[in-house]
Fold these 3 entries.
Entry 1:
Amino acid sequence: MTDAFDLSEASDEFLAAPARLTIDLTAVANNWRDMAKRSGKARAAAVVKADAYGLGIEDVGRTLYHAGARDFFVAVPAEGATLRAYAPEARIFVLSGIWPGAEHFFFDYDLVPVLASEEQLAFWMSAVAEHGDHPCALHVDTGFNRLGLSIEEALALADDVSRPASFSPVLVLSHLACADDPSSPMNRQQLESFRRVSAAFEGIDSSLSASAGIFLGPEYHFDLTRPGIAIYGGEAVNGVPNPMRPTIKAEARILQIREAKAGESVSYGASLKLARDSRLAIASAGYADGYQRSVSGSGVGLRQTGIAGAHGFIAGHKVPVAGRVTMDLTIFDVTDVPANAIAAGDYIELFGPNMPLDDVARAAGTIGYELLTSVGLRYERHYNETE
Ligand SMILES: *Cc1c(COP(=O)(O)O)cnc(C)c1O
């Protein structure tokens, strides 16, 4: 079997890049199939908003379509228009819904708006009266207080015999607030509320769970599940081992290795004082590449928390960030790596199969989702298909 992050097919640009991403599309497909299996009798959609969580909507959309996904969720209409070319027969739901001026996207690219308010409903009904029948979905709020009709509004709509025949919802959905914490009582409260809504819209599909909700078990699956982060290998549920395969490796080139003496300081603010003679590797990625400034350790006085900074991975060693991350460059303390094991020109893994995305995110005081969607434009990319 080929190594998932194998670079034998990579371009010269990629092999010389200051910073590079290797994306394993086979792992993306396998993670989606895994979530489809975990969804039991329900169909699994694929959430590909925000450029497929930073991995690239074109390649990820095409891969998941070939893997069998036929329902996709994006956040905004333009994402749906891009995806359409890669998912010709799929149903593409737009989570932000619709507003005046955006309707052409829905009709031109055959997108399904997820309507979330009385205004959006009224606007959609007038749009379909003009353009003719077109599917839509309904978002009902069951406790998140983000988008969605209230439960009362949804139940009234279900009973409304006067609604036009051209108004034909194909899906009713809601979103869980605390599914990453299986012990939260919120999960069951939202489930009970959603059951009432789902029953009122008998005959159309219901959807409640994103990645974390799928792990809560069959009661939470309804007809359609909406995994996102799990497809990309990120952690959905807190405090349990992550069963998903990593899909992305971010690496930065070492530009220079330097020796520094005990007592000297490192990076902006000079707040890291070296306790020993040290060897420092200067890596070609920084916060402009989404390697967030907050991954700098608490030793730099950046934050008041006791969280240590992140680590990179090089030559079989985990090495800590030294001092503040800067815009384009990050300094790692490689004193404990044998001097002959690394050289300028080598790559250090910022996150990937050897340095879990969520460990780096935790060091930054955030979640894998934010790290992924922040990767930025400077990375050279290589997509692997090992299937
Ligand atoms: C982003 C999103 C999802 C996917 O969530 P994950 O936690 O990434 O699986 C599903 N449903 C809605 C409404 C979302 O906004």
Entry 2:
Amino acid sequence: MDIIKTDREYVAGTYARAPLVAISGAGAQITDETGKEFIDLGSGIGVNIFGACDEQWVSAVEAQLHRLQHLSNLYYTEPQAALARLLCEKTGMKKVFFGNSGAEANECAIKCARKYSADKYGPGRSAIITLENSFHGRTLATLTATGQEDMHVHFGPFPEGFKYAPANDLAALEALCDGSVCAVMIELVQGEGGVIPLDGAYVGQIARLCADQDILLIADEVQTGNGRTGTLYAYMQYGVSPDIVSTAKGLGGGLPLGCTLLGAKLENTLSAGTHGSTFGGNPVCAAGALSILSRLDEPLFAEIRRQSTYIKAQLEGAEGVKSVTGLGLMLGVDTEKDAKTIAAQCLEKGVIVLTAKNKVRLLPPLNITRKQLEKAIRILKGVIAE
Ligand SMILES: *Cc1c(COP(=O)(O)O)cnc(C)c1O
């Protein structure tokens, strides 16, 4: 079968796919159908957090697969309960809702924020503030939450109750808090928007403003979460305590899993029947996530920060590089050359890189070896300078 031809004929054309037919992988190495090997600096958009087919993750998933694949959330399963406990122990959050994706994690965050406010204050306080250039997902509500005009076409009418503030402008955000707002949702590092970290002081000011007005602070850690930025969650290095944290991507290690972590204020907001998901917290996905989460510890974070420092040192000031932004192993490289051209040329030379807006985006597996990183960065530097 000609995979590319068949895919183009039958799969909806929502992706401008690169010409790579992935067959197998091990760690940060991916092999295509011709046997060509690639070093992966994208990890499936930050999903394969310990790379392809990581042995510990595979055996955790496999063991659960042989036990029970699913029974629905009408019953109890051990992996889901154990994962929820570990997430709460590691974050201090009180409750977890499981879904299957980042968008669903944010949907839950939005619903939960609105219900908290409605329960306490009655109707009329349902608006969510998000930031310009943000990305929160593809469902209608999370697309509306996404602060990018060019994505708000084709699919109207959009749900009401979203307001947008320019990032790093506290006065603009404050002006939107007119009594109609129940939550502020932010990405600590805007990922799809170009790997742009929010200013630390600004994030602290938002947290204070929210606390003063009982507006909930929602951290969308779908991309920044699970060790990616060099701490378990990015908010931990901003010194704030969000009321709600949503995450997905890396949490499942390659299987679909999203979760919404709820802090003390929201501990009892969701009651039976108010929200749900057929697949959410599926025992196989949860067993894999449990194995991953139990390995996200301080020695690993220290290594992530070392690898980050290495990449920055290599690329900052290199020929054709304008700047490097981001935290940990979530980095954006602003280049003189077009980022999409760079990604295509890197692929030809055996290195997978992503793009975000006009930048080259790097989200390597957290356990990429220094040797693999050295080789990949050397190739990337060459392509950028060409
Ligand atoms: C990827 C992403 C989402 C959407 O996640 P899906 O799993 O694709 O639904 C939401 N928010 C952020 C910050 C993301 O990076």
Entry 3:
Amino acid sequence: MAPDLLPFSRPESHATFQPHRWRSVLHSNGARKIRIFSTGFILTGLVYVAFFSAYGPLLRPLGLADPLLVDPKFAPSRPSPPFPPDVLTLEQIRDIVAPTRGFFSRDYSLGLGWNNVRYIYETALLQAELLNRTLVLPSFIYTRACEYDITVCANYATMVNKGDAIGSDEWREMPIEKQMGFRIPISVIVNITHLRSRQPVITASEYLRLHGQDPESESSSGVWPRQSYHTHPNVFETNKTKTPSLFVIENHWYAPTGIVRVDYIPEEMKKRGGLERHHGPDKYDGSAEHWPPLEPTELSTYLTETANGIGFPLDWYTAKYVLKNSHLIGDVNLDYDDVVDKVLNAHGWEVLYTFPAVVEMDLAKIVVGDLRQVAPRSSIRGFKDDYHDVDADVVVLAGETHINTKPGAMRFTEELGRHRYVGTVMHSLIQQQKVFDLAEVLSSRMRQRTGGRMWMGAHMRRGDFVRMGWGSTITPEDHIRQVEDRLGAGRAVLADLQSDIEGAKPDPEQAMLPPPQAGDPFFVATDERDPDALRKIAAAGAVFMSDLLTMEDRREFGWPLMITDLMALVEQQLLVRSNFFYGHGMSSFSGAIVNMRAGRGVDPRTMHLD
Ligand SMILES: *[C@@H]1O[C@H](CO)[C@@H](O)[C@H](O)[C@H]1NC(C)=O
Ligand SMILES: *[C@@H]1O[C@H](CO)[C@@H](O)[C@H](O)[C@H]1NC(C)=O
Ligand SMILES: *[C@@H]1O[C@H](CO)[C@@H](O)[C@H](O)[C@H]1NC(C)=O
């Protein structure tokens, strides 16, 4: 395999990653504007996404009947040991924590599926880094479905009732297979050795061991137990009555209405606004610093009114338009961005950096593209500024912050901060090497099926998205027609790119392959379960995972392929390697693929989301 094809072998500052090129991928599809009416609904939606979009029986090996597989005679009698063995000594755990100010953790929503949990972890990595603390992650996640009868997977992974584990009645009325989930060690899902090489991270079970507690007493819901995790001293602590202290960042302190949470407040901004520190604990309201009141100017009032009308924070281009048309500023040339920024600053507004939304929402948490926004300085609160100096051994951010928030759950005050976060998302939580290796093999099989030409792939999320009205098409016929239509456009893009000398060619080997032809088979990852619907999708030329995997692949890769969500990690990596990718703008499964393609320096024109 050429080193070029290896995942993440490129330096992070790879020259082909150019945010401005990503706009075409990210433009929202005007024909499909989806409104979601309440936060509650989104939360329910995410939970649905998490647990009910099982890829189902589609990927069952042909010719093997279920009864054979569930016959206890044929199933291993004991669960195989967790792999890879990744047990740290107490001294190793201590040494990870030592160069930091202590621990940072969250109330993790473990009821969600991996792609949603993943961006909660990415956000937590950012927050822990800002506070110079060791991040504590759950030592396991729950997966939602087994490719076979659940009793088969239960021989390989601890089966739990999700409702009991999470403390929710969400699934009580469902058939039993939908109520059960599998507890999978985090080291099976991500390369934890690699993660630790980037940032100090330990698992909750390691935290418990470090404090002389039973690792089996780890929180099953992901919520940080405020009492039980604080009853024992650190095993290296000489004062045996000194239990770890806790500081909770209350959820309503994080980003209350009217407040814009940012990573940190740079020195110049502090000076501009005369930021003051609160004195004394009586003044403490969740924010350590405050901006002295500022007399509003006519222009700042005008900007505020605009924001009240169309949403907050304002996009930078909107703000510039307002400035140009306000006739409130004298003779300045607004063609220069830094002039616009200076005018805004002078009137109490600041420029912030974030990522553009996909399909007008921020569900896919895609970290490509650049979006500048502006907010009144008085609304800005720095996460580092507020909580870095907290002395407690453990700092916990209560509740969830990912609903309706930008990637990172905060905005960045400097371009460099945003750039660093892109690196975290693209390079911190990566899969085990064998996932990449298998995806590489499957990719070459797709190439064989297309006669050596480039191949294309799509994510067809059906089940839950169709039920919730999140999909634009209902019938499988319409849906596959839409996929064919988008891939048809993709074919033209790939043909064009080959003759485009200026275009980014991060992967010369791939670029030398002939472009796809009409009628070439294409790969589809889907959660569709209905055999009739699957036949219709296959008839259009779709190739599924079960068509590509051989018995040897399954033997070599091992039991994780039996668990739908873990096999989906391979499907994701396969789609990362497609020459053209079409996915859902509202899906975190598709969003992660776009982020990983960007991490490989793939040309943004070779993907489409809507
Ligand atoms: C992080 O905290 C540790 C322990 O307090 C300190 O020694 C170190 O200098 C801090 N690192 C940074 C980058 O502030
Ligand atoms: C031991 O820790 C406790 C709790 O933090 C504290 O009150 C006590 O003063 C400490 N004892 C010594 C000898 O430092
Ligand atoms: C984890 O990543 C490191 C590189 O950071 C690599 O050397 C190692 O082989 C990976 N482990 C697995 C199990 O993939």
